[in-house]
Amino acid sequence: MHSSINRRKFFRSATAAGVTAIVAGHATNAPQLMAQSNAPIKPIAIASANGLQATAKAMSLIQEGADALDAVIAGVNIVEDDPKDQSVGYGGLPNEDGVVELDASVMHGPTGRGGCVAALRNIKNPSKVAKVVMERSDHVLIVGEGALRFARAHGFQEENLLTEDSRKAWLQWKENLSTTDDWLPPHDIDAKNIGMNLKSVIRNHGTINCNAIDLRGGISGCTTTSGLAFKIPGRVGDSPILGAGLYVDNEVGAAGSTGRGEANLLACSSVMIVEYMRQSKSPEEACLMACKRIVAQTKMKRLLDDKGRPQFDVNFYAINRRGEFGGASIWSGAKYAINTGEKQSRLMEAAFLFKRGS
Ligand code: GLY
Asked: In this structure, are residues 143 and 117 in contact, taking their beta carbons and an 8 Å threshold?
């Protein structure tokens, strides 16, 4: 197992961004966390590796006094709006019909509320719609056509989310799926077995999760994604499911995920990570425990390598209310973004269970 002594030393010694407000009046089930309730608040933003800008934006808003939820949503909006990130929002890779369907969740620790949308079409910021579900409905999760109608009712503008790059990636996937259908990739007069060239197509599970603590000690999080590339229409991953792709408890901390949503839906890892932290595990230890649960739970041989390890990856990111942070993945090589008050965020190496190539 990967050692993270340097990272631990770092976050134990990390200082707050000049903030010394006091958390008061919070009940908690965890004595060890309760003992910390007079500790200075340490504002922080954590995100998946595609969240360098998102965490910097979230932190700059937090330092201006923003609520952590508004801050993380503004942060992930940068990635949702970015056509080059093909795993989130505008420009996300579409479903198998070539239609972009987006999932998102938000959770607001101070009020214990959450909102989510799934399989939402035509709206590029599902994170904003999820917040409106939380604030302006008596529901937590709205999906598909209902989510679109809800968004329209709240003034969200519809637009085509399929960029040319994502359309071309989808067409390449579709034309190379099979030698026995009628879709043909470019070919010449000598070509045979047309449609067997799928090696270059990556079906990503990319996503952004971003969690933060604000100046009042409020903890919130958001996870937003276009989900698995070329998925069956209506497929929903872990991102919009509270407890799986995101969970926040203001008395403990927050956790979120990226990677293979199907594995995480079966493990409900984000709520588990928060519960492990409630039982005094560090954020990194809690994330590693979630990875181990998924490994133990994965029994289908089609998902395992020749050593019985999952062939997929799942990544977790967590913060506790003391401002400590950590991340872990099943496989080595993952990173996550952190900002503890600096102008620019930095990438940290995630802990892991298995070294790639081993
Ligand atoms: N983790 C994102 C998804 O599987 O949809």
From this structure: yes
